[in-house]
């Protein structure tokens, strides 16, 4: 019985790990398998902010539950959560109007936010340029994480305190029903059995079910990000989201003025071409993470995105960031890109095969914020537990 589990989760990123977390919370015996020696996909290559404020009303519920879960875990075990809040900075009258409208929406949802005057923004965020900022909207409950370390700390916590069976270097090559069990086998002919198997990794999905993958509406997004050298004694608290974020994030799509404002935007700007919006977040070592850009291709044609960093995009982002905040240094010590999968026509890709194999992937940029809350509801559904209300 050592290799038989109530749940086998395939994929050790944030989505798979939180599916494992919630299965463990239900008292189930759980095995999490990861194809590599450690998680190194989109979860470790993201910006590291948990911002339910940027999500539409449906996903904000998942994001707010995620916040609660992150803070609960952090109270027991350090997984790098820092609660410094998030702020959206408006640079003009249109963006300020969207902030006012979003605040009204969140007030109706009982989600705390506060409008900041120009002067309050300048006092709260050192280096913020007076010729950029007009107003801000602050969400005090939101948090940041260290993306390169958080997932490892979370898995360490689950192994040490929740009895998770975690298997690295376990590339799955077959997933076959076998009576009341599903057999999950890797390249070394090692085998685990699950009453339910949940596949949360796009690569494993593609390898195991190529025809279903080819017929899906999955696309991939390539996002470029950078990290400066440490900024000395300079402190920038929380997640800083700027005017182009206001014009991009799904939450603002629900604002009454959004469609009119988007219609008036120039259609051929570099910002549009590269899908750029400017974000700032200070890492634990005092450096600043800057981002990000978005370029898209069908998941089956990921090679169209190339494997290089485009310096024109990076230089454009640095130039625009300089117009917003005067940092002590904009010297860059690291550059990288992340590849995220998402659906063109739905929030997330889900398909069940033979009742006991569940594919759940394509959460896109919602992963760090939404996975913990979404997984709670999805695990409860898969295991026929009473409906979870968020």
TrEMBL record:
Cofactor(s) listed in the protein's UniProt record: FAD
Listed InterPro entries: FAD-dep_OxRdtase (IPR006076), FAD-dependent_OxRdtase_HpnW (IPR017741), FAD/NAD-bd_sf (IPR036188)
Domain FAD dependent oxidoreductase, first and last residues per copy: 6-375
Keywords: Flavoprotein, Oxidoreductase
Protein family: Belongs to the DadA oxidoreductase family.
Protein name: TIGR03364 family FAD-dependent oxidoreductase
């Amino acid at each position: 019985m050592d290799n038989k589990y109530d749940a086998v989760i395939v994929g050790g990123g944030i989505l798979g790990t939180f599916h494992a977390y919630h299965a463990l919370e239900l008292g189930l015996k759980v095995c999490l398998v990861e194809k590599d020696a450690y998680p190194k996909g989109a979860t470790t290559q993201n910006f590291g902010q948990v911002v339910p404020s940027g999500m539409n009303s449906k996903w904000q519920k998942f994001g707010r539950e995620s916040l609660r879960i992150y803070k609960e875990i952090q109270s027991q075990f350090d997984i790098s959560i820092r609660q410094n809040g998030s702020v959206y900075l408006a640079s003009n009258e249109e963006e300020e109007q969207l902030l006012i409208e979003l605040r009204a929406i969140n007030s109706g949802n009982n989600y705390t936010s506060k409008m900041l005057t120009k002067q309050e923004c300048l006092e709260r965020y050192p280096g913020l340029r007076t010729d950029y900022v007009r107003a801000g909207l602050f969400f005090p409950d939101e948090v940041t994480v260290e993306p390169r370390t958080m997932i490892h700390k979370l898995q360490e916590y689950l192994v040490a305190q929740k009895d998770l069976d975690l298997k690295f270097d376990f590339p799955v090559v077959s997933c076959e029903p076998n009576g009341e069990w599903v057999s999950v086998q890797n390249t070394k002919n090692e085998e685990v059995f699950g009453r339910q198997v949940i596949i949360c990794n796009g690569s494993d999905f593609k390898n195991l079910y190529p025809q279903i993958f080819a017929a899906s509406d999955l696309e991939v997004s390539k996002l470029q990000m950078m990290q400066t050298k440490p900024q000395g004694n300079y402190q920038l608290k929380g997640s800083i989201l700027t005017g182009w974020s206001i014009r991009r994030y799904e939450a603002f799509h629900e604002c009454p003025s959004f469609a009119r404002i988007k219609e008036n935007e120039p259609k051929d700007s570099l910002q549009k071409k590269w899908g750029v919006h400017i974000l700032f977040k200070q890492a634990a070592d005092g450096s600043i993470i800057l981002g990000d850009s978005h370029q898209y291709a069908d998941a089956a044609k990921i090679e169209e995105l190339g494997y290089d960093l485009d310096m024109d995009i990076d230089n454009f982002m640095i130039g625009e960031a300089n117009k917003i905040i005067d940092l002590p240094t904009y010297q860059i010590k690291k550059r990288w890109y992340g590849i995220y999968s998402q659906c063109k026509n739905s929030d997330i890709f889900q398909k069940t095969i033979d009742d006991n194999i569940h594919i759940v992937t394509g959460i896109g940029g919602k992963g760090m914020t939404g996975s913990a809350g979404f997984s709670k509801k999805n695990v409860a559904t898969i295991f026929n537990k009473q409906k979870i209300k968020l």
